[in-house]
Amino acid sequence: MSALPAALAANPDLDTWVRIDAAETVTVFTGKAELGQGLVSALARVAADELDVAFGRVRVRTADTDHPLDERVTAGSLSMMSSGSALRQAAAEVRALLFERAAQRLGVPAGDLEVHDGTISAAGASVTYWQLAGGRPLRRRASGAVAPKPAAEHRLVGERAPGRSDLRAIVDGSARFVADLATEGMLHGRVVRAPAPGATLIHAGEGIPGVVRNGSFLGVVAEREEQAVSAAALLRARSRWSAGPPLAGAASPGAWLRSQEDEAFLVLDGRPQGPAIVY
Amino acid sequence: MTTLSDKLEIDVNGSRVLVEADPDTPFLYVLRNDLGLRAAKLGCALEQCRACAVLADGEAVPTCVTPLAAFAGRRVVTLEGLADGERLHRVQQAFLDEEAAQCGYCTAGMIIGAVALLERSPDPSEEEIRTALDPHLCRCGSHWRVIRAVRRAAGMRP
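The joint structure predicted for all components is written out below.
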């Protein structure tokens, strides 16, 4: 038994990480978003290696509010450390669970079974992951009782190919970022930021159409983007703010940063050896 | 502010389109919002990052400040206009082969900048590539791969 990766301990239901699909594919889930860090391809490699299925069978579903897997923010180069290590452990436990079921089904000890691309076999008999669990929930919590494969047994992790699946859309211009989304009748907005953290709005500029104010939040909406841009510039010039509290350590930022509490932990073979951190 | 009575004819990606917008509108907003060409990105809005670059008569130019009127009569090509159907332009293919992007926000501008460079200098030195793409900011740090991609594209048949 070893301690579960923090994100798996926080979300221990294996069904939130791995789903054996009816369609002879495997869907894996992450609470992180693809931001070009290559998360989708990297997680697919982790899952394919750990589950012993072909890379092409793995589907990755990123952060989805309809799915009960919450990994909070995607930041700090922590996607693989956090979500990747959790998925690896979850996939190892799912593989072991499928081996248990295959052993029962085939009437042979789990240790005598072999698996190739989702087909478990022993002495001429075989059963697939999809026959065992396709389209059905696994209903098992992560236990930490199963160890993931050692790095030497990885086929895909650490290899260059296959590459990122999202790049084609990026180079041909069809990739859509949040700022590219457009809906029928959509208005355009700009926020007029406070000049300093904690500054409060004393007076919002007048005579400008489309102003939105909520306490010290100030912005503008317009039919066209360039109208929002110029209205926001006018609003900024005509509004007045209180100074706000002084910034901590403003006089000597370097010294202030060094005086803060830090988090130091050793990472060994992809696992933090020390207090777990969930991001 | 905007008067919508003005109509300007613009040549974009090989088609002539009529645009109904104030001639002073920064061209990027016209491309993205009126023409639905959203590959070029709004980054700094100060002509300092080149995420908004397009080709105008073969030259890579920013579009976030320069008004619509300045593009009338010029042949504009955006990232969407580079491929020949499903067949990518060699610079796009080279960026794909070298995985020369991380988040991809700067990529439209980078590819446009590289296409313009190879038009005027088919076999550029690394120094030339660095100089030509110097105005294109990438916060992810994809620069080394971008340089490799441009060199690879230079070695490909146009």
